[in-house]
Amino acid sequence: MKIMKKIRIIALLVLTVVSASLFTSCESNDATTYPTQNSTPPLTLLLPLNNSTVNTLTVQFDWADLPLAVGYGLQISTDAGFTNVVYDTSGFNTSAVTLNPGVLSDSSSYHWRVRGITSSDTTDWTTSSAFSVQTNVVSA
Question: How far apart are CA 49 and CA 51, in angstroms?
């Protein structure tokens, strides 16, 4: 009689565990907290505009702020694959930077991207944006 009672208790426990796992909701109301590893960073490149032409060698770069950022990385390359990087730094604590003369060359095309740095993580690089430098072009 005691054995039957123990078997019923064990069967009830197994049934409870199995039914709990079958009927657990997969829905979550938790908001994603950025940055998350291997996620698309919530950064938006603002300036220079994609496929734009700038008429100065002191180009201003601007992007949307990342909440809780302690810094940002900026890369500029002559190719979309970033194999020929001409500028690479993680030393900015603001989301707007104006480059000093001597970094970029006239009559050249570039690609740029940024990533955010928090106290606990670094986002992936943004999708790159392209621009050209033509100092003889008059801006509208």
Answer: 6
